[in-house]
Amino acid sequence: MCLAIPARIVELEGDRAVVDTMGNQFKAKTTLLPHTKLGDIVLVHAGFAIQVIEEEEAKKTWQLIAEIDEFSDTQNRVSG
Amino acid sequence: MLERIYKAQQLMDAACKTLGRQINIMEVCGTHTVAIFRNGIRTTLPKAIKLLSGPGCPVCVTDQGYIDIVLDLAQRDDCIIATYGDMIRVPGSNGSLETKRSAADVRVMLSSTDALQLAKDNPDKTVVFVAVGFETTAPATAVVIKEAAEEKRENFCILSGHKLVVPAMRALLAEKNDKIDAFLCPGHVSVIIGYGAFNEIVNDFSRPCVVAGFEPMQIIEGLAEICRQLSQGKAELKSIYTAAVTEEGNTTAQQLIAECFEPADGCWRGLGRIKKSTLKLKDKFSRFDALKRFNITETPVEDTTGCRCGEVLCGLIDPPQCALFGSACVPETPVGPCMVSSEGACAAWFKYGRKKQR
Amino acid sequence: MKQNKHDRILLAHGGGGKLSDELIRKYILPRFKNPALEKLPDAATLNLDSNTLAFTTDSYVVKPLFFNGGDIGKLAVCGTINDLAVAGAKPVALSLSLIIEEGLEFSVLERILDSIARAADDNDVAIVTGDTKTVEAGAAEKIFINTAGIGTRIEGVTLGFDKIAPGDKIILSGTIGDHGMTVISQRKDIRFQTQLKSDCAALASLTGELLDKTAGVKFMRDPTRGGLAATLNEISKQTRLTVQISEADIPVNPTVRAAADMLGFDVLNIANEGKFVAVVSPDCADDCLNICRNHPLGKQAALIGQITETTDLPLVEMATKIGGKRIVQMPYGRELPRIC
After folding, report:
1. Which terminus, N or C, of chain A has the lesser number of Cβ atoms within 10 Å?
2. What is the pLDDT of residue B34?
3. Are C129 and C37 in contact (CB under 8 A)?
4. 3-state SS, residue B296
């Protein structure tokens, strides 16, 4: 789906990543974003990370989804 | 959030009063169509604004000829059809992948890499990947084509249904519907091609082009920006999806597309043949092209079902104006692709807006 | 060497002979000790304190068999109990029939049977009759379970679509989509890791309390397959009335929302296994809400809308979070992951 939800890269090996969005972890390829690193927040489409998103921007969307005022970082920290 | 939406609505009301006529704004992205209907955005807009769902959903723009080829290949017992979920219920001349599923090997994929993996796991079968989608999805196909070439994965091929948004917008304005006042441009296609790609639409047709994301607020503020421009007689290019979209876009993705594909004339449902509007595999990778692999010539099939999805896609008619809409053509028994795809204009209109809102 | 100890089910275990007998006496009977079942009669005879019975049946083919928060066995017992509970009955006895694929490991069967026994004991219902059949490999995806359930009507309680009237309020007992999304995450074609847990639970204790302490409950249903959207559409279709709900009031676990958005699903269409929708008279809506919220199974209960007269078509209408309006359609029946 054209994702509106930013997902944080929690595992990265070559261009094979695992991204976390609100406690769900999906496989994603970072081939289209060669400079991404562990902990970056990305937009994913059809299994490919297509853009890196700023932490502040991502938090705004996560807040909207979690319907809470303050999105604490712990909910989406790099577990790796 | 609600106060920003209220402000945008105020601006739109003022703009509509200044213009004193109906404003036709077209979005060309399936996800925008869904977000607009799921959030009931049309019911929050001034009556003068008519929001049209254009050729933005990969399923709706696929012509029947392409679907019939997929269904024919699905009949072959040496083939596995790998496809995104969007294509499963699209009706061809007879039946769809869903109705053929029991007699064919059809797998739903989340990503093109899953399709290539399928080829690795089934060396004695040929995996045909139904590669639909716009510039957001084409790079994902390019990546696996290059991988297949490196690994000499001969039992993998794709049926390229990739399409380009800007040529379709040009064809719409030039030949089909010049009453479109402005475009709400797609969020993630722009992440790839960069919002600069819409400059030619602004310059050649002086229509406002505003790129927006998928949150309701983004869409409403995008529409407000369009109304502001129209009421001031301006036609500018603007992206309010600043979190993700840049002017030049994702150059890595663009290079990958350019390496594997070349623009080619192609057939769109409802829009007919459009010059340089689809992506064809370059000769260098032609052995991964299902058309060559199974020597099929793509012949566009005239749609005979009386379905007017084509006119819906061009914003010429609303779904209820099609005689089949809501009677022969309903989500359970879809006739045209715009009713099949859950964000096709007809499905979304039937599902979310069946009752006359205004 | 244990002479006849098999570690997998054989076709012969369904043949009605020695191996069937061994399967029932060694694996099934010990777990479901109760007088009605013990002598293995062809039919259980029960004396019930009400001559109006509620009777239901369901089949369970969930894949995978075991998932975060439950398994096919717990699902079978809770699902059957819930069908009786939302019909306004006190669950009493269940039947249990197993269709087992040749080759299923006994260890897996035992895990499922333990889970069935635990769920039945926890909710003091008895498995009073049952049957076991085996099928050749490849014919049943390991195991299918069918259950039937009998319940006695709770004194003075008659629920039904015909009781529903304009002005009635709609209460949802908790967050939606938890079960469906948990199982979807294990589907072959989707497969993602998630912290999500199925909400699989037996609701009789909560529904019983509601029916006992208030008089205004008109109708209840557990929104399983097809989710909240299917249940609300059934209400609208059967009553010819319009259901109005407000999106902002519908509790959704953010992890479910994120996963649904990731795949392009509408959370209103996703299955639940431990929730119910109750249509109640306006004057007792607050009491019902408090009762739910003070119960472990209803902590996030919410008042999500009301029933109104129909102006032209009986539909389910939703006020969206941004102040828009949309129709909630009966779902087609299978959500597919999409790219756009």
Report:
1. C
2. 86
3. yes
4. coil
Look up the CATH number of the domain holding residue C98: 3.30.1330.10
Q: What is the mean pLDDT of residues C93-103?
A: 95
- Is A46–B244 a contact, with Cβ atoms under 8 angstroms apart? no
ipTM above threshold 0.85? yes
Residue C82 lies in a domain: yes
Structural domain for C65, as ranges = 5-153
- Between vectors from CA C337 to CA C332 and to CA C340, what angle results, nearest 5°? 100
Of A2, A45, A65, the CB nearest to C258: A65
CA distance C118 to C98: 17
For residue B215, the chain A residues in CB contact (below 8 A) are: 4, 61, 64
In a domain, C231, yes or no: yes
User: What pLDDT, in 10s, does the model give residues A18-72?
Assistant: 999 999 999 999 999 999 999 999 999 999 999 999 999 999 888 888 776 666 6
Tell me whether residues B110 and A50 touch, CB distance under 8 A. Answer: no
Question: Is A23 close to C192, i.e. CB distance below 8 A?
Answer: no
Q: Is the separation of the CB atoms in C155 and C243 below 8 Å?
A: no
| Cα B246 from Cα A10, distance rounded (Å) | 25
* Rounded distance between C-alpha atoms, residue B169 and residue B56, angstroms: 10
Chains B and C form CB pairs within 8 A to the count of: 100
Task: Give me the helix-helix angle, B251-260 and B138-151, nearest 10°.
Answer: 60
User: Which amino acid does the sequence have at B248?
Assistant: E
- Residue A64 touches partner C, C-beta closer than 8 Å: no
Residue pair C55/C195 in contact by the 8 Å Cβ criterion: no
Which residues partner with A27 through β-bridges? Answer: A18
Which chain A residue has its CA at the smallest distance from B139's CA?
A32
Nearest residue to C99 via CA among C130, C67, C64: C130
Whole-number pLDDT of residue A74 = 52
* Phi and psi at residue C313, to the nearest 5°: -120, 135
Residues in B 299-318 with any Cβ partner in C closer than 8 A? none
Q: What is the pTM of this model?
A: 0.92
Among the four given CATH numbers 3.60.110.10, 3.90.1150.10, 3.40.50.300, 2.30.30.140, the one describing domain A5-79: 2.30.30.140
Residues of B with Cβ-Cβ distance to C339 under 8 angstroms: 58, 84-86, 132-133, 136-137
Which of A1, A45, A66 has its CB closest to that of C263? Answer: A1
* Exposure string over B296-314, b if 16+ CB within 10 A, otherwise e: beeeebebeeebbbbbbbb
Token pair of C196 as six digits = 């999500």
Structure tokens given for C208: 């019983």
Query: CA of B45: which chain C residue's CA is closest?
Result: C324
Average pLDDT of the residues in C135-158: 92
Enumerate the β-bridge partners of residue C306. C169, C244
Q: Which domain holds residue B331?
A: 309-357
What are phi and psi for residue B133, nearest 5 degrees?
Answer: 115, 165
Q: Classify the C-alpha dihedral C7-C11-C14-C20 as positive or negative.
A: negative
Q: Would you give per-residue pLDDT tens digits along chain B (358 residues)?
A: 788 999 999 999 999 999 999 999 999 998 898 899 889 999 999 999 999 989 988 888 888 899 999 999 999 999 999 999 989 988 888 888 998 888 899 999 999 999 999 999 999 999 999 999 999 999 999 999 999 999 999 999 999 999 999 999 999 999 999 999 999 999 999 999 999 999 999 999 999 999 999 999 999 999 999 999 999 999 999 999 999 999 999 999 999 999 999 999 999 988 889 999 999 999 999 999 999 999 998 887 777 678 888 899 899 998 989 999 988 898 778 888 888 776 678 887 777 665 543 3
Q: How many CB atoms lie within 10 A of CB C115?
A: 21
Per-residue exposure over B253-279, b if at least 16 CB sit within 10 Å of its own CB, e if not: bbebbeebbeeeebbbbbbeebeebbb
- C255, C338, C339 ranked by CB distance to A24: nearest: C255
